[in-house]
Design goal:
single chain; 141 residues; alpha/beta; Glutaredoxin; 5 strands
């Protein structure tokens, strides 16, 4: 038999866990987003990030793409900088997510699209120079 004290303890634990999980979500949505961390594109998380006015980078990439491989460590390094602490990076697979590639009017891999909230502020295609990628990310601030 479960005592009231045990039941209360379990209920309190669930509430604390829910509060912690909720603090890691954008706008209380279902997709956790940590600054600078890449995540697979999720429409609800993207919409929430836009509504919250977050700086956003859409990274359309392919595993076989050499330029994409060059872009990845640059994006990761820049996203780790304090000035980009709020940056949300969404990754779209060029080969398996063709519908999203079309939705973003990106017809090539290694396409980076920058948003400041809901406004697209810039994009680049096949860019692998750190200074140019940094300039694109600065547009999101």
């Amino acid at each position: 038999m479960i005592s009231r004290r045990s039941l209360f303890g379990v209920a309190a634990g669930v509430l604390v866990a829910a509060a912690v999980a909720g603090s890691q979500l954008i706008g209380g949505d279902t997709a956790p987003v940590h600054a600078g961390e890449k995540m697979n594109f999720d429409q609800a998380a993207f919409d929430a990030a836009q509504a919250a006015g977050k700086p956003i980078l859409i990274d359309i990439r392919a595993d076989w793409c050499i330029v994409c491989a060059r872009q990845a460590p640059i994006i990761q390094s820049l996203a780790a900088e304090p000035r980009f602490s709020e940056l949300v990076v969404f990754e779209i697979d060029f080969d398996s997510q063709k519908d999203l590639v079309r939705d973003f009017d990106a017809f090539r891999q290694a396409t980076l699209i920058a948003y400041k909230g809901s406004e697209e502020v810039g994009r680049s295609i096949y860019e692998s120079r750190a200074a140019e990628i940094e300039a694109l990310l600065e547009l999101t601030l």
